[in-house]
From TrEMBL:
Main location: membrane
Name by which UniProt lists this protein: histidine kinase
One Pfam family cited in the UniProt record for this chain: HATPase_c
UniProt-listed GO biological process terms: phosphorelay signal transduction system
Protein topology in the membrane: Multi-pass membrane protein
Catalytic function, reaction form: ATP + protein L-histidine = ADP + protein N-phospho-L-histidine
Protein location: Cell membrane
Keywords: Cell membrane, Kinase, Membrane, Phosphoprotein, Transferase, Transmembrane, Transmembrane helix, Two-component regulatory system
One MF annotation (Gene Ontology) recorded for this entry: protein histidine kinase activity
Length: 564
């Protein structure tokens, strides 16, 4: 037992080495991995990673946008505060007087620094009309020119908020002019600049971002949970298959559809054809999916309007040609239809009938020759050689007579069939005869398949009509300028009255289910050649009469035109 399992496992590994897709438990497909193959994340892992990557990217983008927005708001708010502080300082009498004189004043510097601390500003600088510092947080820098290059507008009588780099660093500044006598619109005698250094701006931005951090983390967590849930749902919807497995199955499906000789249509619950094989496209006249079934095949659409049931060998018309249809309903609505040309199916059935007929003939010949050999052997063992010789001569004479009747039938396959049917009749105890004078010319070899099928079916039906009872079956072959005629007579009870009008219809038979296809096939082929097949009653005999018109003369292909 263990040895068998080991051998099975070894063969399984060899098979899996050739086929990278193996089917696992529960009908799912798993990719066979070797130690040298790097494991690839499954669909769920890839979806979660992709979702997290997109979510993190969006979060980073939102952080950048939010930072830029907060930075602008902080600059604007600090600029307004700086401008307000500068306006207050510019109206102080001590500042107005100091800037009018334009000289250093310790009291002015002290009062301005007190106001700076109250305004929580990083600096308040007062300069005279030439931009020389009169007040500054750093005493060593008093008397030096103001830096930043943004004094032109305040000295021109305009208030301004700017971002510039001064002696203390990059800062947001609010600058206003100092008017002579404190009267706006008079002469500008100085400038007041209140500023907040940029680290204070970024401190405000950081505080705002920190307050938003919990929301970013919550969004990331919810997104992760949602990604895992969506990945699991998606994987369940696609039958736990990986994308590579789905692609492989799709390629296999296309190959299978291309290899089928039948047409295949897949139709959804709404009547839309979602899939069609190459053979189906050919039978539909070049029309392919997606398209409404009512447009491609109105008869099938009408038949399946209320839902399709499992059906086998349903005969319908497609573009005026008969086809055989198999229907298989799908879960959730819709169905798959497989169909093939009825003529092809009948041709296959006829080939099978011929094969079975030849098998029966060979079996009958074997049995008959065995019986004859047994008779001859017994006579010889009993010392009755003369009687054995008479039996042998009688058989030879009977065979010679039968072949003499067929000497003018110049269709070899038909002659072979009739010889075999004679052996079959002898096995069944039936008197099988060929009418003297039967003849067919060699030009009927062109329709040998039809003749073999027709005569084979008619004689076999005649044998079955006798139902194992002794009787007579006679075959007559002849031709005239209008065509050829075949008659098969039997002494059976005849065709039941209920089948007189439907005998040549498909499936019509008095012998039970699964019968009634042979005569229908013969009738179709004979009609296709412009002939006729009918039956009648002639006294105690049942007669089937087959007629075919003269075959058209064979025209050799015209030689191709040669151009110089």
């Amino acid at each position: 037992m263990l040895a068998a399992q080991s051998v099975y496992a070894m063969h399984g590994r060899e098979r899996n080495a050739r086929n990278p897709w193996v089917r696992g438990a529960g009908g799912s497909y798993n990719r066979e991995r070797t130690p040298m193959t790097r494991r690839r994340p499954n669909l769920q892992g890839r979806l979660v990673r992709l979702h997290l990557f997109v979510l993190c990217g969006m979060t980073a983008l939102l952080v950048v946008v939010q930072t830029a927005q907060l930075y602008g708001e902080a600059r604007e708010r600090l600029g307004e505060r700086a401008l307000t502080a500068s306006r207050i300082v510019a109206k102080l009498p001590l500042v107005v007087q100091g800037t009018e004189r334009g000289t250093q004043n310790a009291a002015l510097n002290a009062q301005v620094n007190v106001l700076r601390e109250e305004a929580d500003a990083d600096f308040i600088v007062v300069g005279n009309a030439r931009g020389i510092r009169l007040a500054h947080p750093v005493p060593e820098r008093l008397g030096k020119p103001m830096e930043g290059g943004d004094n032109a507008q305040p000295l021109a009588g305009q208030e301004v908020v700017s971002v510039a780099r001064g002696s203390l660093g990059l800062s947001v500044r609010g600058k206003v002019p100092v008017w002579a006598g404190g009267v706006p619109g008079s002469r500008v005698v100085g400038v007041v600049s209140t500023g907040y250094l940029m680290p204070q701006v970024w401190h405000l931005v950081g505080s705002a971002l920190i307050s938003l951090l919990p929301w970013f983390v919550l969004a990331l967590a919810l997104g992760t949970v949602g990604a895992v849930w969506a990945a699991r749902r998606l994987r369940a919807e696609i039958l736990n298959l990986e994308p590579e497995q789905i692609a492989a199955l799709a390629r296999q499906q296309r190959a299978v559809l291309a290899a089928l000789r039948e047409g295949v249509l897949a139709v959804d619950a709404g009547g839309l054809v979602t899939l069609s094989s190459d053979r189906a496209v050919t039978l539909l006249g070049g029309q392919s999916a997606p398209a409404p079934l009512a447009t491609l095949w109105p008869e099938l659409a009408l038949l399946t309007a209320g839902g399709a049931a499992r059906t086998q060998n349903l005969e319908l018309a497609l573009r005026g040609e008969p086809v055989l249809v198999n229907l298989e309903p799908l879960e959730g609505g819709g169905f798959v239809a497989g169909f093939r040309d009825r003529a092809e199916a009948l041709a296959l059935a006829e080939e099978l009938t011929h094969a079975r007929g030849f098998v029966d003939v060979l079996r009958a010949q074997t049995h008959e020759y065995q019986n004859r050999l047994h008779v001859l052997s017994g006579l010889l063992q009993l010392g009755r050689g003369e009687e054995a010789l008479r039996v042998l001569n009688a058989e030879i004479h009977a065979d010679a007579q039968f072949r003499q009747l067929l000497r003018d039938v110049q269709v070899p396959r038909l002659v072979a069939l009739l010889v075999g049917k004679r052996e079959r009749a002898q096995e069944l105890g039936i008197d099988f005869q060929i009418t003297e004078g039967s003849h067919l010319g060699p030009h009927w070899e062109r329709h040998a398949d039809t003749l073999v099928s027709a005569v084979g079916n008619l004689t076999e039906n005649a044998f079955e009509a006798l139902a194992g009872q002794p009787g007579l079956v006679t075959v007559t072959l002849g031709e005239d300028p209008d065509g050829m005629q075949v008659e098969v007579e039997d002494s059976g009870p005849g065709v039941p009255a209920a089948l007189h009008d439907t005998l040549f219809n498909r499936g019509a038979s008095s012998k039970g289910e699964g019968r009634g296809y042979g005569l229908h096939g013969v009738y179709s082929r004979v009609q296709g050649l412009g002939g006729s097949l009918r039956h009648t009653r002639r006294g105690p005999l049942t007669v089937f009469q087959l007629s075919l018109p003269q075959p058209l003369p064979h025209r050799p292909p015209e030689p191709a035109e040669v151009t110089a």
